[in-house]
Amino acid sequence: MRIGIVGNYGNDNNGDEAILLSLVKQVTSTFNISSSQLTIFSNNPKQTAERYGVESYPLYYKKGNAVKTFIETFRQNKKVVKKLDLLIIGGGGILMDLYRREAPLYGSYAMMAKQSNTPYVIYGCGAGPLHTSLGKWFIRYMCKHAESISVRDPESAELLWSIGVNQKVEVIGDPAFSLREEGAAAKSDKPTKIGVTAVPYYNADYWPEGNPEIYQKFVESMAKNLDKLAAGNDVDITFFATKFPQDANVTKDIQALMEERAKTTIIDENLLPSKIMEVTEQQDIVIGTRLHSLILATCTETPIIGVSYHHKVNDFMNLAGLDRFSFPIDKLHESDEYFLNAFNEMRTDWHGTLEQTEQLSKKLYDEAMNGTVQFTDALNK
Question: For residue 89, what pLDDT is reported?
């Protein structure tokens, strides 16, 4: 048996690597196979093969322009897809056209599978934004021929239906929740250790379209909110990154603007998912902009506060029933007390906060594990 997985992997985004790690564990456990029987399509095949003990091929073959790249990728990887017993497209926020390449790229894998009579599933994905006619067409095609479709939040399901997807769409949560393990370390008697992640919001080195003014407003508002939290409380703030070095560079800009920077530490390292979970487990609260900093914190039963730079962050916070602790990134400058107020609410009933977080962690783990039935169902059809 050979199972293929395609997504945004091998791109030094350790949120996506957390998803891949969870999928490797889920698939090998579900089918009782070794990781060597997995084929991963990756941005960095050598790294992926060595890290997970899998067979790996390039996600795409760049050739001059988008059309030539599409044709060459299709030609090269269809031969690989044809040998698979099942192809898993997911997870991650890949059902979108923000960067223009995603919908045609992942749609091409659906086409390869369809032409090769290889069953495929769309698994635990996030959808949106979807603005182009071409992007919507590819996503509808992917869904039309998939054996099953699952997404990580209700808003993604609603978006797929709104663009004309008629198939059943299940909400199973993010696959990375399956990384949860029993016996998370106990938190402090009162919250004192605060973990923070930041994203290069409108930074030209990362964002599709850079805007120095928006970026500066973001880092200033983060610095002011963290200062307000730190000023009147005995806390230690630890900055860490899930996308390195880009996120670490942002935290340096934030730290430089803080008056309470003596209470801060930056982990200036490329942390793999297991290390990120070690960091989040050591915190009492995580304030995250990156979605998977929030997800991995929840896996370690650490209460979270979200800064919503993308609808997927807000969608997750809504799914978790934590929308009151989710703050839009473009509104963060409107108050210096967002983090302080959320911190104070959590601290007021700290025991209750920890209990609710533990229950949430278990619930999302169960939902993620239940989603694996799609793998076996696809092969039995």
Answer: 97
